[in-house]
Design a protein that fits this description.
The protein has 572 residues and is an alpha/beta fold. It contains 21 helices and 19 strands. The strands form 3 sheets. The protein has a 7-stranded parallel beta sheet with strand order 7-13-12-11-8-9-10. The radius of gyration is 24 Å and the shape is globular.
C-alpha cells in the first residue's frame, strides 16, 4: 500500500496532519477505525473518506461516543487471530470524556485501542474557547501512553514514529501488557481540504491569535468592593454590554445606569428583562451597530455565534471582561481589562442616541423576523419552531446544543421563559435529556426542553426511570431535522453530499414513537410548526416527547441573521 500520493496532495496543514496520522496507523497494522462526527475532528473524517475509498482502512461511524468506544472494543476483541489494534476518532471537548468507560474497560481487559482525539490548537486552550478542555491526561491511569501532537506539526517521520510507538504499546510490545493509548491531535482552521475550502468561499476562516502582536490585559485582583465602572470603562466610547452563558445579573444594572445597549445569549439569564435587547446576531452583523461598537463590556462566556467572536477579536475594540474564575473568556487575546466584579456607572455615557438606535433596530429586526417566519415556506423551519417554544411562556426551558440553541438565539424576542438553562461548559450534545430531567426534578415546576434529534437519541437512555422513582413534568420538544444539519451551515456543507451525509450529518433511522413508549414516555407527533403552538398550550403531566419534523435550512438561518441588511441608515 502506498499512500504517499494522498499526503503529497494535502495542501492545508490540518488536512496533511490527519492523512499522515492515518497513513501511519495503517502502516502499524490498524485496519478498523470507529469515527464519531464533529467539526474539530473533520480533518480525520475527510482523510478517512479517502482511506476507505482506497481500501486501506475500514470505518464505522457512530454518533454516541460511549457506544463507539465499546464498538471499538468489540472489534478488537472479536478478531479470530486475537485482539488487533482498533482506532477511535472523536472531536474535542465532552466527546473525549464520553470514551472513558470504554477506555477503562480496555485497560483492565488488555484490549489495544488507539484513541485519536481532535483538539483545539495551543492558542485556543485555556482561554474560554467553546468545546475545549484539558484532553491530554483525561483518561488518567487507564492508558499505556499519551501523546499531544501540536497543530500544524509536519514532520512525517516523527509522526510515523509516534504512531508506531503508540500502536506497539497498545499491543503490549515490549511491556507484555496491551491496552489503550491516547493520541491527542491539535487542528487549526481551516478544517476542510483545500478544494472544499475554495468551494465554501462564503465560510469564515479565522485563526484566533494571529495578526501580529496582541495587547496584554490588565488583570485586577478580586476585592471586597466591585471595581468602579469609571475606572475601567471609558464613557466616551460607543459601548455594548455583551452577556454570555451565566452572565452576572448585575449587567442589567450596568446597562441601565450607563445608558448603553445590552445583548445576551439565551442562557445568559438576562433575556427575560426588557433591558436586554433581542436579536443580537442580526444587530452585530450590521455595519452601523455591530460595526459601530468601540468598546465591549463582556460578562459570562459567549459560545454561540461567529458575529460575537468577530466583534471580540477586532483589535480596535476595547474589551473589558467581568469574570470571577481563573480562565477568563478571551479567545482572541484582545482583552484590555479583566475584573472579578464591576459596579454600575454613576452617570450615563456621553452618546445618548447610541442606545436609542440599538433599541429601535432591535424592534425592527423583531418585526422583520416575525414577517419572515410567518410565511408559508417557514412552516417547516426549525427557526419557526424555536420561536413558538420561546413564546410558549413555560416556567423554565432547557436548551440543547448545536442548532437548537443557535436557532433560539436568532429568533427569540423579548420576554420568553422564566428561566433558560443550557449545558454550555463544553457545549456538547451529550447528557441533555438527563440534565433536563434533573432541572425539572430540582425546580418542581413544569419544564420544557428543546433539542434536535441527535441530541435526543444520544441520551435517550435517560428516559429509563426505574419503577417507583419520581418522574418530573417534562415536555421534550424534538426538532427532527434528520441528523446534524449544523454542519451544512459550516465549511463542510460544501463537501460532496455522500461525504457530508456519512461523516457529518449521520441521520438516524430510529422510530421515535415505539422508543418513547418503551420508556414509559408519552409521545406526540406534530405535523407542522403551526400545530406546535396548541400542543405546547396543554398542561404537562409526566415525561412527554413532542416530535416535530423540521428543516434546518441554512438559508433560513442566514436570512434571519441578515434581516437588517437591506437599507437601514447609518447611525451618527
Amino acid at each position: 500500500m502506498d499512500t504517499s500520493d494522498q499526503v503529497a496532495g494535502c495542501s492545508h496543514p490540518s488536512e496533511r496532519l490527519a492523512m499522515t496520522l492515518l497513513r501511519a496507523l495503517a502502516g502499524a497494522g490498524v485496519r478498523d477505525v470507529v469515527a464519531c462526527p464533529g467539526s474539530r475532528s473533520a480533518p480525520f473524517a475527510y482523510a478517512l473518506d479517502t482511506a476507505v475509498a482506497e481500501g486501506w482502512l475500514r470505518a464505522h461511524v457512530r454518533v454516541d461516543e460511549r457506544s463507539a468506544a465499546f464498538l471499538a472494543l468489540g472489534l478488537s476483541r472479536g478478531c479470530q487471530d486475537g485482539p488487533l489494534p482498533v482506532a477511535l476518532v472523536t472531536t474535542s471537548g465532552g466527546a473525549v470524556a464520553e470514551l472513558h468507560a470504554g477506555v477503562a474497560e480496555a485497560d483492565h481487559a488488555h484490549m489495544p485501542l488507539v484513541v485519536l482525539s481532535a483538539d483545539r490548537p495551543f492558542e485556543m486552550r485555556g482561554v474560554g474557547a467553546s468545546q475545549t478542555t484539558v484532553q491530554p491526561g483525561i483518561f488518567g491511569p487507564h492508558v499505556r501512553g499519551v501523546w499531544d501532537v501540536p497543530a500544524g506539526f509536519d514532520e512525517d517521520g516523527a509522526l510515523a514514529s509516534t504512531i508506531a510507538r503508540a500502536v506497539a504499546l497498545a499491543m503490549g510490545a515490549p511491556t507484555g501488557t496491551p491496552g489503550p493509548v491516547h493520541v491527542n491531535v491539535g487542528f487549526r482552521d481551516p478544517l476542510v481540504p483545500a478544494w472544499i475550502h475554495e468551494a465554501a468561499s462564503g465560510a469564515a476562516m479565522t485563526r484566533p491569535g494571529s495578526g501580529g502582536p496582541l495587547p496584554v490585559p490588565e488583570v485586577r485582583r478580586a476585592d471586597l468592593v466591585p471595581t468602579a465602572w469609571e475606572e475601567v470603562v471609558r464613557t466616551d466610547l460607543r459601548t455594548l454590554v455583551l452577556a454570555g452563558d451565566q452572565a452576572d445579573p448585575a449587567a442589567l444594572d450596568w446597562a441601565r445606569a450607563a445608558g448603553v445597549p445590552l445583548v445576551g445569549e439565551p442562557s445568559s439569564g438576562l433575556r427575560g428583562s426588557e433591558v436586554c435587547l433581542p436579536h443580537q446576531q442580526s444587530l452585530l452583523v450590521h455595519p452601523d451597530f455591530g460595526g459601530g461598537v468601540e468598546q465591549v463590556v463582556l460578562t459570562g462566556r459567549p459560545t454561540l455565534s461567529r458575529a460575537v467572536s468577530a466583534l471580540l477579536a477586532r483589535p480596535e475594540v476595547r474589551v473589558v471582561i467581568q469574570w470571577s474564575h481563573a480562565q477568563w473568556p478571551d479567545v482572541a487575546g484582545n482583552a484590555d481589562v479583566v475584573v472579578a466584579a464591576l459596579a454600575s456607572a454613576v452617570a450615563p455615557h456621553d452618546d445618548l442616541a447610541w442606545p436609542a438606535a440599538w433599541k429601535e433596530a432591535s424592534q425592527e429586526a423583531g418585526r422583520r423576523i416575525v414577517d419572515l417566519l410567518e410565511g408559508a415556506e417557514a412552516d417547516s423551519w426549525m427557526l419557526a419552531a424555536a420561536r413558538i417554544v420561546w413564546e410558549s411562556a413555560c416556567p423554565q426551558l432547557v436548551v440543547g446544543a448545536s442548532n437548537s440553541v443557535r436557532a433560539l438565539d436568532l429568533v427569540a424576542g423579548s420576554g420568553g421563559p422564566g428561566r433558560v438553562l443550557a449545558n454550555r461548559g463544553l457545549a456538547g450534545i451529550d447528557g441533555t435529556v438527563a440534565t433536563a430531567i434533573g432541572v425539572a426534578l430540582a425546580a418542581g415546576v413544569p419544564t420544557t426542553a428543546l433539542m434536535g434529534d441527535l441530541t435526543f437519541l444520544h441520551d435517550v437512555g435517560a428516559l429509563a426511570v426505574p419503577a417507583g422513582e419520581k418522574r418530573p413534568d417534562l415536555r421534550i420538544v424534538v426538532m427532527d431535522d434528520q441528523g446534524g444539519s449544523i454542519f451544512a451551515a459550516l465549511e463542510h456543507g460544501a463537501a460532496p453530499r455522500d461525504v457530508h451525509d456519512r461523516w457529518f450529518r449521520t441521520a438516524q433511522p430510529t422510530a421515535l414513537e415505539p422508543l418513547c413508549r418503551a420508556h414509559g414516555a408519552t409521545y406526540r407527533s406534530v405535523e407542522c410548526v403551526t400545530d406546535l403552538r396548541s400542543v405546547l398550550a396543554r398542561p404537562i403531566h409526566g415525561i412527554e416527547v413532542v416530535h416535530l419534523r423540521v428543516l434546518a435550512d441554512p438559508q433560513g438561518f442566514t436570512a434571519v441573521r441578515e434581516v437588517l441588511l437591506d437599507g437601514r441608515g447609518t447611525h451618527s
